């Protein structure tokens, strides 16, 4: 087939390579920068059997008007992977926030060899050896699947803006919505469209899909205690993280998905906070709560500040906030940052990002240390980690 792949910077180049490896004739267009592949003008005059584009591309892009409708990158990845010989169990995870925590929690429950593919890196279990660090675009799923196949293990994988629906279970971590594709599409509508193709779907509170497993029907909380009952598996576990909203839903989703897979989630009692996800540490007289990750937003920052004040006895708080680079698809807008600062009301604020003296988390933390002799520092910088 002659296939046109649009957008080389969000996994399109990798997808084009995989399609060529499968014997297709492939053109690729860098629709955002114009630096790779063929030009838009050249692609407009050629003919194709199929075009594939990311869900966030403007549906009125000239190449989509000329060659569309397009198959999404997620759907194209499923075609590349095929239906046989895939890892088992194979869990795909998407959502505006909570993906990484849910993925790590699930991976901690699965026995034997496996691959955990997240925004923090791709790891081989049980050694937890870091194999590589890539994005979580749909095409990044391909090498993770192949490595899981090679070792004969399971796969838990994060994916941005939807799922390939190639696995056994697809998990949505958040019902949060925002506009994509030049503000002409709804992110949650696109995610639900892709989720509807999955074999089994596990959903968080606040959203419904026909035939899906609602987490509230399997899991409930009372303080530190999580109780679960589903698929013939029932029990409970205690973990102080169950009291934190940023962990409660991911742990609930991990527990419910484990039940779906026939795995007892009770070992989640030992699950610890992840770096960048409410992990707390002390440096002398300073408490640092690290909430800098790809899902950082106003809600998680307010919760991190509350947690820091609780742990520090309401000591003066310095907030390090912003966005590191522009690599995160679901950004932290200037207006949202300003609203967050107003809500948290820190004693001091260090802004991170383009146009500020501190452009990285490390620089922001160093600046915060200089103005915080004692008290608490909250890191709330949106970034891939």
Q: Topology of this structure?
A:
Elements (H helix, E strand, L loop, with lengths): L1 E5 L1 H14 L3 E5 L10 H6 L4 E4 L8 H6 L3 E2 H9 L8 E5 L4 H9 L6 E5 L2 E5 L3 E4 L8 H11 L2 E5 L10 E4 L6 E2 L4 E2 H9 L5 E3 L9 E2 L4 E4 L2 E6 L2 E6 L6 H17 L17 E5 L2 E5 L7 H15 L4 E7 L10 H11 L3 E5 L8 H11 L3 E8 L3
Helix pairs in contact: 1-4, 5-8, 9-10
Characterization of this structure:
This protein is of the alpha/beta class and 385 residues long. The chain folds into three domains: 2-69; 79-270, Mur-like, catalytic domain (UDP-N-acetylmuramoyl-L-alanine:D-glutamate ligase, 3-Layer(aba) Sandwich), CATH 3.40.1190.10; 279-382, Protein-Tyrosine Phosphatase, Chain A (Alpha-Beta Complex), CATH 3.90.190. Helices cover 31% and strands 26% of the residues. It contains eleven helices and 22 strands. The protein has an eight-stranded mixed beta sheet with strand order 8-7-6-9-5-10-13-14, sandwiched between helices. A hairpin with a 2-residue loop joins strand 15 (219-222) and strand 16 (225-230). The longest helix is centred in the middle third of the chain and has 17 residues, at 245-261. The model has no long low-confidence stretch (mean pLDDT 95).
Give a short overview.
With 385 residues, this protein is of the alpha/beta class. The protein has three domains: 2-69; 79-270, 3-Layer(aba) Sandwich (UDP-N-acetylmuramoyl-L-alanine:D-glutamate ligase); 279-382, Mur ligase, C-terminal domain (Protein-Tyrosine Phosphatase, Chain A, Alpha-Beta Complex), CATH 3.90.190.20.
């Amino acid at each position: 087939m002659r296939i046109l792949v649009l957008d080389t910077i969000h996994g399109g180049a990798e997808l084009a390579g995989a399609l060529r490896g499968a014997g297709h004739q492939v053109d690729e267009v860098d629709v955002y920068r114009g630096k790779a592949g063929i030009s838009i003008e050249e692609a407009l005059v050629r003919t194709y059997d199929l075009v594939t584009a990311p869900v966030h591309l403007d549906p009125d892009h000239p190449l989509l008007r000329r060659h569309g409708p397009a198959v999404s990158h997620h759907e194209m990845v499923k075609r590349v992977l095929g239906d046989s010989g895939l890892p088992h169990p194979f869990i795909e995870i998407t959502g505006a926030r909570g993906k990484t925590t849910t993925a790590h929690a699930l991976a901690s429950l699965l026995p034997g060899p496996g691959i955990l593919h997240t925004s923090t890196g791709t790891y081989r279990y049980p050694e937890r050896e870091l194999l590589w660090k890539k994005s979580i675009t749909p095409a990044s799923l391909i090498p993770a699947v192949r490595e899981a196949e090679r070792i004969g293990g399971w796969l838990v994988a994060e994916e941005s803006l939807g799922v390939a629906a190639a696995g056994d279970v697809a998990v949505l971590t958040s019902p949060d919505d925002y506009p994509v594709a030049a503000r002409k599409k709804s992110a949650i509508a696109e995610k639900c469209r892709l989720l509807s193709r999955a074999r089994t779907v596990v959903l968080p509170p606040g959203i419904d899909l026909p035939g899906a497993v609602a987490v509230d029907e399997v899991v409930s909380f009372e303080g530190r205690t999580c109780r679960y009952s589903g698929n013939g598996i029932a029990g409970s576990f205690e973990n102080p993280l169950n009291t934190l909203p940023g962990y409660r839903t991911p742990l609930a989703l991990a527990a419910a998905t484990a039940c779906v897979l026939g795995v007892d989630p009770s070992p989640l009692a030992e699950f610890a906070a992840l770096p960048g996800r409410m992990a707390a540490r002390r440096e002398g007289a300073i408490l640092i709560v690290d909430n800098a990750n790809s899902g950082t937003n106003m809600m998680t920052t307010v919760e991190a500040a509350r947690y820091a004040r609780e742990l520090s006895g309401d000591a003066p708080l310095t907030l390090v906030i912003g966005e590191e680079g522009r690599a995160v698809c679901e950004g932290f807008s200037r207006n949202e940052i300003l609203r967050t600062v107003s809500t948290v009301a820190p004693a001091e604020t260090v802004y991170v990002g383009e146009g500020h003296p501190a452009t990285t988390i490390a620089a922001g933390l160093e600046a915060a240390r200089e103005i915080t002799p004692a008290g608490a520092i909250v890191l709330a910088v949106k970034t891939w980690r």
